[in-house]
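Practice record 12: protein with adenosine-5-diphosphoribose.
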Amino acid sequence: MIDIVVLTGAGLSAESGLRTFRDSGGLWEDHAVEDVATPAAFRRNPDLVHRFYNERRRQARSAQPNAAHRALARLSRQPGVLVVTQNVDDLLDRAGAQGVIHMHGALNRGICAACGNRFAVTGDLATADPCPACGAAALRPDIVWFGEMPQQMELIMGALQTARTFAAIGTSGQVYPAAGFVEIANGSGADCVEINLDPHRSSPLFHRHIAGPATTTVPAWVDEVIGPAASGDR
Ligand code: APR
């Protein structure tokens, strides 16, 4: 049974050099959501959408996990912990996190719109590339776009109902359904903690706010929840 659910957002990877979406200088300042992050955008201009995600993939591959990813990786290896991320980078996984749910998909996977095959992606994807399974030129990044259903929602919803602690880390809480997780966890009696650089606009449903950069606040919070790491497990 799940005791602790952690939801992470772009702020977790900000100190690894990956841009957030809605902060000043965020990705949505340079790119309109409706041009690059919807199924209609992909139908209209697949080359542009591939270019956008190819660039994201290159940046994610050159970024390194930070102390917050490593702390959550340690937490994820405890029984009864579920880490859910909205991030499409793989920095939590590369930090050694177990069982991370990538609810908004992952840059290092592609999916064939013709046959549904999912496959690993390391380099760029292009409109004319054939599917490794069926050969159709219908590949897209395995990213959940606006208007699409996030992945593994049933599992997440079940976990939110049993959790005694819910932590939202580095997310602005503006995108549903993730933004509604605090309501479900709070309604089920969980202690709800928000960890954010700047929590001043957050939901009143959180019982506690921890302000500051994730690389400092998250390791301290994880130490508080499961005790300090043995040397060699940082
Ligand atoms: N430490 C902690 N929090 C930080 C840091 C940091 N170093 N830097 C920024 N933040 C916080 C910001 O204060 C902000 O609240 O991270 C949050 C980032 O918010 P968004 O850019 O909106 O990112 P996120 O909440 O993950 O977005 C959700 O929106 O467009 C979609 O699919 C995309 O998964 C994404 C979703």
